[in-house]
Amino acid sequence: MANASSRKPPAAPPDYMPARVDPCLAMLVDKPPTGADWAFEVKWDGYRLAVHIEPHRVRIITRGGYDWTDRFPSIASAALQLEVQSAILDGEAVVLDEQGRSDFGMLQRALGRRPASHAPDEIIFFAFDLLYLDGCDLRRLPQRERRRLLEQVLNGRDDAIRLSEEVEADGDEFLRIACAHGIEGIIAKHRERPYRPGRRSDWLKITCTRRDSFATVGYKPSVVSGAMGRLLLAARRGGELVYVGGCGTGWTQAESRKLREVLQEIATDSPAVNLKRKSAVFCEPVLVAEVEYRAWTDEGKLRHPSFKGIRERADDATVYELK
Questions:
Q1: Phi–psi pair at 262, nearest 5 degrees
Q2: How far is CA 4 from CA 7, 53, 58, 162, 167, in A?
Q3: Full set of structural domains in the chain with CATH
Q4: Whole-prediction pTM
Q5: Would you call 55 exposed, middle or buried from its count of C-beta atoms within 10 A (0-12, 13-18, 19+)?
Q6: Is 258 a catalytic site residue?
Q7: Considering 8, 31, 43, 323, which one is annotated as catalytic?
Q8: How far apart are CA 176 and CA 181, in angstroms?
Q9: pLDDT tens, residue by residue, 235-283
Q10: Least CB-packed of 36, 139, 184, 320 within 10 Å?
């Protein structure tokens, strides 16, 4: 590892170490940017954290400003081993599955208070930015310089704190490979930009989406007269339908009203799924909704579903089959 003097930026009066830093947030876009000014990383699916390393303690702060140090003991312990006097690391706490992919459900189980199949010491903090180092506020520096310093601080580490690797690749190709491997998406960062709080175009996120067909088994009315609040969806498991969540986006108000009228015509008092929802209107499962979504939750529900269209089951529409 390089010594402290070799990794520090040019000498300057000591900067005040902030008690909390509002995080830089990535803007969602449809396609990766192009050009040499952009660096790419994997998009981790976990909890965004800032690890504050101070002379006599470590504090782990959530994106919302809560102190969760006691919930991440392995990360706090690893932070004390870093050869720094003071630092703020920005990154994501994750639990990795057998394929090395971050799994939010596994992370939630590891953090749960009840006995779980995943222990807190399985949680890994992938650091992707360095905001403060040994008396110097680095947020004003360009991303490429902050990255260089971060790599030196975390050089060769393989414990509970690790470097989130940059990937030297074309953005479109990296996204294709990431999606093919079941990764949530990728992040693009402009190499010349400082670290600024809030959602900006300095950082971009491009997510992998899935699209499948699900049986419509009912809806929940909207508070808006004549509109629909949520479409209730089901997948097939064996010879029965299983509820997989509700979808409340993807349509205009006019489309929502029309869809509610169509579903009202096939309403039934005998739900096709084992589900009780207050104010829900159940219908015969003769229509299939095309839905775009990010992934599956740990409870077997669709994550971030968005409605794309609807067809009749008779129209050779294959309902998603749960494994």
A1: -65, -45
A2: 6, 15, 19, 19, 26
A3: 17-207 (3.30.470.30), 210-312 (2.40.50.140)
A4: 0.72
A5: exposed
A6: no
A7: 43
A8: 9
A9: 999 889 999 999 999 888 888 898 999 999 999 998 999 888 788 999 9
A10: 36
